[in-house]
Amino acid sequence: MPSIAIPRRTVLLGAALGLSVPLLQACGGGDDAAELPNVVQLAQATPDLSILVEAVVAAGLTDTLSTSTVTVFAPTNAAFAALLTELGISKQALLADKALLTQVLTFHVLGSRVLRNEVPLGKAIEPLGDGFFKVESDTALRITDGRNRVAQITTTDILARNGVVHLVDRVLLPASQDIVQLAQARPELSLLVEAVIAAGLDPALQAPGPLTVFAPTNAAFATALAELGLTKEALFANKPLLTQVLTYHVLGARVLKAEVPVGTAIATLQGQTFTVGADLRITDRRGRTSQIIGTDVFATNGVVHVIDRVILPA
Length: 314
Known about the structure:
- By secondary structure, the protein is α+β, with helices and mostly antiparallel strands.
- It has helices at 8-17, 21-27, 39-44, 50-59, 62-67, 77-87, 91-96, 98-106, 179-184, 190-199, 202-205, 218-228, 232-237, 239-247; strands at residues 70-75, 109-110, 134-137, 141-144, 150-160, 163-168, 211-216, 250-251, 266-267, 273-276, 281-283, 289-299, 302-307.
- Helix 10 (190-199) crosses helix 14.
- It starts with 7 loop residues before the first helix and ends in a 7-residue tail after the last strand.
């Protein structure tokens, strides 16, 4: 086979990934994307992605990742090893569970090419699989997955013929809890869960959505009861009032922190609006304020923001 000149950029990418020059030569020279390996070939030539390659083959996703235009957030072998420990299963068991494997792998794939500088920071990103995640940047790029686990993007913009690969140090997982289940798992939201069940709103908050819930803590509910001059039993027994208050905390769309329209009236399921300032302080219809103290807690059907005061409609 005659020698073909290889662009310096391609050589540097190959060196960073452990790709050999002969492989790159076999794929051709020049700067055109058509002369690069496809995503699967790139992974096959990268020793630290060998388990990802095994998983892709076991899930039957080779053709998709070889021909479709994609962005892949590629977990390293160490990331897969950590996942197996976290899930308490062997590699063989994971590779044999095609449904789970497909669900996990497609959560790492976007249906278009998205370079590092094109990633919509802080906003919901929807992969080919179910669910969503977000990417943020401070000193490094990090991903929050559907289960509110954090992974770091360690290498970006590895170009392939049919897209781009970014390496990640943790396997991403889609959400496994709806909004009600998420609240039930958090002791500081136990009064909210009681209130939702008393109002009969739990089926609505477990529906597909998407929804956004501004979730008052137990301390917020205690303060609200004192303010309203009611016992918990009296409030929970007043289903019309309870429903009005709770639905005022719910939006009929998924709105992450970075997507909150600052200073603009935000419509709730209850029908009335509130506003959120740049300091993440909510002003309700009675002119009362509540601070958002926890943002972007993800669920299968939306997102939860934790607040320190119950907000009230007019």
